[in-house]
Amino acid sequence: KLKTKTNVGTTALTVYTANTANLSSTILVGLVCSNTTSSAVEADVQIENDDGDNVYVVKDAPIPAKGSLEVLSGGKIVMEPDDVMKVTSSAVSSIDVTLSIMEITT
After folding, report:
1. What string of DSSP letters covers 18-50?
2. pLDDT tens, position by position, 87-106
3. Reading across the β-sheet that carries 84-89, which strands appear in turn?
4. For a 10 Å CB count at each end of the chain, is N or C smaller?
């Protein structure tokens, strides 16, 4: 599946929540953050775990003007039900997010 969000800004925006209905887990296959502005920005990508162990995948990662950042770079992340992935930018309405996932049903 493909999940997208546009105009991510300075408030953390939920890009994906692993749903509990019929899902045992979700694999994040690819994540690209694209800077839609003419100035450099920084991006944060966080995973908020259902067990309260919240972590940054990247923090203050630089994205050049009109450039993009491939966050996973070949790695994969497994999310459990109720885990949430959020993205934040250092500038208002400046990042578009493209997330590729594989949902595993029970």
Report:
1. ---TTEEEEEEEEEEEEE-SSS-EEEEEEEE-T
2. 999 999 999 999 999 998 87
3. 13-17, 84-89, 41-48, 55-63
4. C
**Is the pLDDT assigned to residue 76 strictly greater than 90?**
yes
Structure tokens belonging to residue 88: 């934040």
Residues 6+ apart with CB under 8 A from 62: 40, 41, 42, 69
CB 6: neighbour CB atoms within 10 A? 12
pTM: 0.92
CA-based angle 25:28:31, to the nearest 5?
160
Are 65 and 37 in contact, with CB atoms under 8 Å apart? Answer: yes
Distance of CA 7 to the CA centre of its chain: 13
Structure tokens at 101: 């996932």
User: Bridge partners of 7?
Assistant: none
DSSP 3-state assignment of 4?
strand
